[in-house]
């Protein structure tokens, strides 16, 4: 822990008198070779003989100085030896940096044309895994991944490497092991796992990936990541840059790391800008929520070789940047009229052939399919929508509902024909109750009686007015009264094949 700075104490009344006394004596030609020590020796007897009215001037000045000291944050320090004024300045700088990043993202996206440049503009994603975070805000890295994508080509290329930092800082080995076990599961050095130890090599590869053959650092594109990964990404990239500059600071920050949710929000709204009346994300929080859902988090085939053999797929850096790209294109490509390509715009397992909106759509039921409509279709979780295209002359047609795999049937005298076909987002694993119910067998109301109801179904062979035996309660007289059950009114009928005479009644 750094040493705390000694706080500068405000001047008391006697010290103020000494300063005044020294200036008066020096004006008369009297010097004090011993400094303030000699001044104190001569001023103390005079101070003791002074009246309270004479001392009041210096005491009042001392009080005012103490008041000013309370308001001066430069003289107040944290436990780490940093003044509160410096803490406040850093806080304001962080706010200004956040505003600057937000404005730059808005200008970048909104300057692109929805029909041309927006579809081909390149965006870069970054994710960094680390072993531990130091108290000074430094990180010990272990994995780095980059991805480049645009809406037309999908994910064009990726860069990934495991990083071997050599040794874990003293006192952080336990934290590094714990963080590794709970997240990425990359072995902690000195265990060997094949990580790259040459930071210069990693930096050169990163710059080649981002800049191509130009290598003009002034053209370095911004990198986007989740807000909780921004500090780690900045610190690791700074470490890589220091490996070449040897501690020499550059005129500007080579790498810029910006928040991904803001980019996602702007892209989603930009993609629907040419469609009057349609809104992408009405609120910024919706973009954050979609990224937090992370619907592709356990998808295999998009992680590195190391993580493919583990159960830590959601924490793989390579998987993270690919999933983020898939999610953004999943929401945006349909509004740009771009057909999804498996492996580029979405995982390879996604069946994109089934995701075309039907040419005919009922205006009253569009996007509002009920899970209880069409029991025959409810028994199948995946439906080939291409085979369900209706005959335009027929009054009966199908509507793709809001839940994947659910199709409702409606009757319309005059079906409304859409002017274009649009690709839909790829099917995600069924996570809603309606889809889960579609995989179940058909049940009736008798299989789910009302709790505590007196209308209990009787086993075969039991007459209507015959007394019912209830577990733990004995025989009850026939009648309209509700049977008292073992489960506090749940109507659990006992097995009538048991010998009632041998049952113990309460």
From TrEMBL:
What's a Pfam family in this record? Maelstrom
Q: Where along the sequence lies the DNA-binding region? A: 7-77
Q: Which GO terms describe its cellular component?
A: nucleus; P granule
Q: Which GO terms describe its biological process?
A: cell differentiation; male meiotic nuclear division; negative regulation of DNA-templated transcription; piRNA processing; regulation of miRNA-mediated gene silencing; spermatogenesis
Q: Which Gene3D superfamilies match?
A: High mobility group box domain (1.10.30.10)
Extract the InterPro entries matched here.
Answer: HMG_box_dom, HMG_box_dom_sf, Maelstrom, Protein_maelstrom
Domain of life where this protein originates: Eukaryota
Q: Where is the HMG box domain?
A: 7-77
Q: Which UniProt keywords apply?
A: Cytoplasm, Developmental protein, Differentiation, DNA-binding, Meiosis, Nucleus, RNA-mediated gene silencing
Query: Where are its TM segments located?
Result: none
**Where is this protein localized, as stated in its record?**
Cytoplasm; Nucleus
A single Gene Ontology MF term assigned here is: sequence-specific DNA binding
Family the UniProt entry places it in: Belongs to the maelstrom family.
What is the name of this protein?
Maelstrom-like protein
**Which organism does this record belong to?**
Zootermopsis nevadensis (Dampwood termite)
